[in-house]
Amino acid sequence: MTTTVTAPSLPVVGSPAPDFTLRSTAGTDVTLSSFRGGKHVLLAFFPLAFTRTCTAEMCAFTDDVSQFASRDTVVLPISVDSTDTLREYQGKYHLSFDLLSDFKRVVSRLYGVLNDEKFYANRAYFVVDKQGVVRWAWQETKNGEWRENPQLLAELAKL
């Protein structure tokens, strides 16, 4: 008997964003649905803290945090690293936002971005509007690449 395993797919644009709750570097739980009616959300899955591309990306978010805020958007970076590791990373690079730990890989699987071979999330982005609907989704083909903030801000400007 042959079984076919299909990789989970990204949430479909126009569909409700799968809800989740993850622990943040602030020591609190963050639930995606808590932003409904208040803020747009940019979910930014990144492979691992303390790596070159991830650090450049997270520092760029810090540099442009006011631009995201001016678009009524909260940025939620998500990694499979532990909360303690992410807290150390946040402090070392003076990141101006909280990071979310998906240590058990539940949310990475839910969003179809878990790299089963490496056991971390592929770099991916989801724009979720104030109604909790996915409006844009992107997964990098190479984890060494990332969407720069002008492109992400342009997607947010469409909301």
Please sum up the structure shown:
This protein is of the alpha+beta class and 159 residues long.
Set down the secondary structure blueprint.
Layout: E1 21-24, E2 29-31, E3 40-45, H1 52-63, H2 65-70, E4 73-79, H3 83-92, E5 100-101, H4 106-110, E6 114-115, E7 120-121, E8 124-128, E9 134-139, H5 149-157
Parallel strand pairs: 3-4, 4-5
Antiparallel strand pairs: 1-2, 1-5, 3-8, 6-7, 8-9
CATH superfamily: Glutaredoxin
Tell me the series of helices and strands, N- to C-terminal: EEEHHEHEHEEEEH
What coarse outline follows from CA principal-axis ratios? globular
If helices are DSSP runs of H or I spanning 4 or more residues, what is the number of helices? 5
The helix content, as a percent range, equals 25-40%
CATH topology, by name, is Glutaredoxin
Distinctive features:
single chain, 159 residues, alpha+beta, Glutaredoxin, two-stranded antiparallel sheet
Characterization of the model:
With 159 residues, the chain is α+β, with helices and mostly antiparallel strands. The termini are far apart. It has helices at 52-63, 65-70, 83-92, 106-110, 149-157; strands at residues 21-24, 29-31, 40-45, 73-79, 100-101, 114-115, 120-121, 124-128, 134-139. The chain is built from five helices and nine strands; from the N terminus they run E-E-E-H-H-E-H-E-H-E-E-E-E-H. It has one domain: Glutaredoxin (3-Layer(aba) Sandwich), CATH 3.40.30. The chain has a seven-stranded mixed beta sheet. The protein has a two-stranded antiparallel ribbon with strand order 6-7.
